[in-house]
Amino acid sequence: MNLLEISDLAASVANQPILRGIDLNIGAGEVHAIMGPNGSGKSTLANVIAGREDYQIDRGRIALEGQEITTLSPEERAHRGLFLAFQYPIEIPGVSNMEFLKAAVDSHAQANGNPEITAVDFMQMARNAAEQLGLNPEFLKRGVNEGFSGGEKKRNEILQMLMLKPKVSILDETDSGLDIDALRVVANGISTFANTTNAVVLVTHYQRLLDHIEPDFVHVIANGSIVRSGDRSLALELEEKGYSWLEKD
Amino acid sequence: MGLVDAASVIEALEAFEPHYLPWLDRRDTLAVLKDGALPRPNSEAWKYTDPVPFFDPQDNVSDRGEPTTSPTTPSHTVGFESDTVRSLVTTYVNQAVDQRRYPLAAISYLKVDCGVVIHVKPEDKTESIELGELDGQFQRVLVIVEAEARLELIETSTGSNRIVECFVAPGAKLRHRRLQPPGTGIDYNLVAINIAENGSYSLSQYSTGARLRRNDISVNILGKGAEAELTGAWQLNDALHLDNQISVNHMFAGGTSRQHFRGNVDDRAKSIFNGRIYIAPNAQQTNATLTNRNLVVSAEAEVYTKPELEIYANDVVCSHGATVGQLDTDALFYFQSRGIGEADARAILIRGFLNEVVSHADGRALLGIET
Amino acid sequence: MAGTDNNSLDGFVGRDYAAGFVTDIEADTLPPGLDEDVVRFISARKDEPEWLTQWRLDAYHGWLEMVQPDWGQVQFPAIDYQSISYYSAPSGDQPKTLDDVDPELLATYEKLGIPLHEQAALAGVADTQQRPPVAVDAVFDSVSIGTTFKETLREAGVIFCSFAEAVHDHPDLVRKYLGSVVPRGDNFFAALNSAVFSDGSFVYVPENTRCPMELSTYFRINERNTGQFERTLIIAERGAYVSYLEGCTAPMRDENQLHAAVVELVALDDAEIKYSTVQNWYPGDEEGRGGIYNFVTKRGACRGDRSKISWTQVETGSAITWKYPSVVLRGDDSVGEFYSVALTNNHQQADTGTKMVHLGKNTRSTIISKGISAGLSSNAYRGLVRMNPGAEKARNYTQCDSLLIGEKCAAHTFPYIESRRPDGIVEHEATTSRVSDDQLFLCRQRGIDPEKAVAMIVNGFCKDVFRELPMEFAVEAGKLLEVSLEGAVG
Predict the structure, then answer these.
(1) How many domains does chain B have?
(2) Number of independent structural domains in chain A
């Protein structure tokens, strides 16, 4: 059974159709890359899967581990193992990273009937994750994304992923705003996390993240539909030729 | 603060017989005044300025008799009596003025003895109009800038009572410069502006004080994309008094307002500033800011400032700030260490402080901060 | 931080105002109405000396001449002062010790999480063993029913007792300081309080004494149609330090009830008073029925040089809150602080803030105000900073932030700045923000439900103020915010 199944998904924003029938199957142990030019609908797809309320689903279905999730709230989807790394992580002034992470981790445990993690274990886990991403533990005490650099915000998203251990992670333009070293650290974090029981979806405009994480499948979105799917050679082709040759189809 | 004797004010107004523009409908205005619009004891609007001299019924009954026509010559400026503008007056007058909030404007309307209409259409290609002193005690100026038209209005006044009403139509642009030289009497001014969709109004106001001077400014943002930018600077010396009361009212979503006022207060002068930002329910996506900064450079000067926010919509970005302070002693010392005498150093620092909001040479001249 | 402990939070996610129960106890309650006889009755009932009876009567006569002020950004129907009962006390003799207190009353405070047994500390705290004890004075309707840790405090020379006791046991101190900060005729509600005040707390910390524990008064309105008019007086002698906490609750009732207290603080040279309030009077129901009118006069006098008075308040309750804890900075180098969180939801209205009056040289004041409006509520900050001619080099900094939750609430800011000093510095800044959809979505994508997310965001917004609260109250304040915000997100 596929972890995530999307069939004939059409969605609009403010009555403006953006997605026009997307089909996508993602199995356990797979890394997918979704590529496409700006405005093609990549971010919309990511947000619709996560259940953002200002996006209207016009038709189609999204199933996580065989169960329809389109009517679930964002937090219910999260509890079932769906994770979205945001393209523009929002600031929450005054709320510390630690506090935020603990609330998130606890909500998952509670929703899934798991025992609550002890404060000591939690701290240890958070420190380890921070270390893995090259973040000073002091970072955990700062307000969520408050005054973070672009790179720190993106690393923070990956930190949250490592803590929540989702089944399907959709990483929306996680490579943007990262310098070469940060990109390597982030990519390394993602690669270490990916295993045979989960799946990672990389939404990106550029090839450069894919130099570090090899996707099993590459899909190209243009004008709200997947116009081409293939293996990683497709990404290389795109790098060479750009997107315009696809959009003409 | 003294008490305004409402009964005698009303009595005098009822006895008043207008000679100028007798055809104006004055009934509603009188009703508003009778219905409690006059300042009550402890009135918030008159907390730091004594209202009594402004509402003196004796002073208010003076009747100039003969109507005044256009005192200036630009083709767009005509007296109220002209047939061509009578309909404009009837259509527009008091549409931007909340008479309940501004009872002095209401009294001025009842007793108007001098009027000017400025009406600009896009094809007029008007560069600018200068409006100087007018020959009347209760002056009324109507400025109508039609859709997509633009106008620069340069106004100089020490007049005792002037109400300027501006209408900025969709896409129109009005740049308004006001110069207020020192006065010796009791001055009252109201500028009331309605700004329609994508209209833009900017005010540059350069003031000194009078024995008592009150500037009321009321801006209504009435359409999406409407913009108001208000800047002002004042220099108060001797025992001059200046009371600025500003209200920017966002009545519609998607408007922007920026206010920045600075004053330097010396000698025994008294500066009062009240800047209100009002955001009506549903006026979402409003962006509004206000800054008021004051310098006090004398032990006997007084500064009262109150920036106010009144917000009834949540998706807005609003902020205000106010400071009262003195010249930076480190900066003074730095100047002195470079051989600049204290008096000169002070003058330079004050000039620098005010210059942030002064962008016209005539403004600098009035405030005495030319380089 | 309060918001992180899920287990303890969940206990508070009940739908109702948790303190809304009524204690069924026999009470001696005066019939409604106010005249000279009522004033004399209260005074006689407390066996007061003649000077105090006269003081009350003078206040009463002054009050008769006054009119209720109407300048607040609040709206409510006219109060009929003759329909209120001005005295209510549990029946029977005044208990001599805590052991004499009616078990029903002890149970009430236990239910509210306020222990009147000396071995316990404030409730809501998991590791009570590690917390220092808190001395509590419990005021039930018009009278104090008991004060804990009196002996421990007495050893340190600290007097902590009910106001009525202080009148008998320390008449000179009471006579010297009563009305010296808030005069009888200060304002309409202070005058009313001066005429009919029933009980309250009295604290005296002698010279160079650091009060060995936190002091706390817990106010409870129980009886129907009564007003609560307590009077608190705290005196810190030279070099003394005291931290005082105040908490308040009332049953849920459909009619409005008036609470018009007066709090006076006096700090002499080098003394410091830290006064914290967590105000959770019944706020009324979702339709705006019922709730407390909280019209309180609180003022501190920094009389001594280098003295310091700090007000910290967390206001979540009351149908209407109308109060301005203030500091008169008379001593040179004295310091005034005001830290406030005011949250309004449903139909609540708040017009609250502070006054900092700078008289002495080098006086400094800081104001941090966080207003949160949700539902159909209205929340106004009103503050005054005045630099008088003698306040050489005085300084003030004010930061005033509003957070709006939902489209139908209102937030207002009215800061008055009055400066007559060429060398003073006053700085005021204010901002508004809202809980944005983007913030909510981020939290929800991480699995946090919307109500918890809003509570967490609001807690973060208030952090600068919570930091100033004693630990026990910081925890309680965080929980209160969460409960008070229920239903604020759709």
Answers:
(1) 2
(2) 1
Cβ separation of B303 and C417 shorter than 8 Å?
Answer: yes
pTM of the model as a whole: 0.84
Return the structure tokens found at B263. 């004053």
H or E stretch including A189? helix A180-193
B215 plus B362 within the same structural domain: no
CA dist., res. C44 & res. A170, Å (int): 76
Residue C477 structure tokens: 């304040």
| pLDDT of C119 above 50 | no
The pLDDT value given to residue A37:
85
Q: Are B171 and B165 in contact (CB under 8 A)?
A: no
Q: Is the same domain home to B241 and B272?
A: yes
In whole angstroms, give the CA distance from residue C424 to residue C351.
27
CA–CA separation, C348 and C411 (whole Å)? 12
Instruction: Tell whether B278 and B353 lie within a shared domain.
Output: no
Same domain? B230 vs B261: yes
Six-digit token pair at A33? Answer: 């890359």
A249 CB neighbour count, 10 Å cutoff:
9
Residue B1 inside a domain? The answer is: no
d(CA A53, CA C296): 44
Residue C197 class from Cβ within 10 Å (0-12 exposed, 13-18 middle, 19+ buried)?
buried
Chains C and A touch (3+ CB pairs under 8 A): yes
C487 and chain A in contact, CB less than 8 A: no
Identify which of C221, C232, C281 has the alpha carbon closest to the alpha carbon of residue C85. Answer: C221
Alpha helices of chain B — where are they, by DSSP H?
A: 6-15, 27-32, 57-60, 83-92, 103-110, 329-337, 342-355, 361-367
ipTM: 0.85
The rounded distance, in Å, linking the Cα atoms of B50 and C277 is 39
Q: What burial class does residue B300 get, using C-beta atoms within 10 Å of its C-beta: 0-12 exposed, 13-18 middle, 19+ buried?
A: middle
Domain of residue A49: give its range. Answer: 4-247
The tens digit of pLDDT for each residue in C190-223 reads 999 999 998 888 999 999 999 988 888 887 776 6
Closest CA to C191 of C57, C323, C88, C300: C57
Classified as helix, coil or strand, C353 is strand
Q: For residue B366, what are the domain limits?
A: 328-371
Shared domain check, B106 and B174: yes
What whole-number distance in Å separates Cα of residue B265 and Cα of residue B273?
Answer: 12
pLDDT for res B279: 96
- Let me know whether B369 and B307 are in one domain: no
Give the mean model confidence (pLDDT) for residues B16-26: 85
Check if A116 contacts C (Cβ < 8 Å): yes
Distance between B16 CA and the closest CA of chain C, angstroms: 34
Phi, psi of A18 (to 5 degrees): -115, -50
C36-45 and C188-196 helices, crossing angle to 10°:
50
CA distance A60 to A21: 7
Inter-helix orientation angle C450-461/C471-484, to 10°: 140
* Residue B75 pLDDT: 39
Length of chain C: 490
Segment among B123-132, B223-232, B247-256, C239-248 with least mean pLDDT: B123-132
Q: Do chains A and B touch (3 or more CB pairs under 8 A)?
A: no
Please state, in angstroms and rounded to a whole number, the distance separating the CA atoms of residues C326 and C385.
10
Is C420 an interface residue toward B (CB < 8 Å)?
yes
For C57-108, the pLDDT digits (tens) are 999 999 999 998 888 888 888 888 888 888 877 666 655 566 666 677 667 6
Query: Please, which residues 177-236 of chain C have a Cβ atom closer than 8 Å to chain B?
Result: none
The CATH number for A207's domain is 3.40.50.300
Q: What is the DSSP letter of A57?
A: E
Nearest chain C residue to B302 by CA distance is C420
Chain C residues with CB under 8 Å of A44 CB are: none
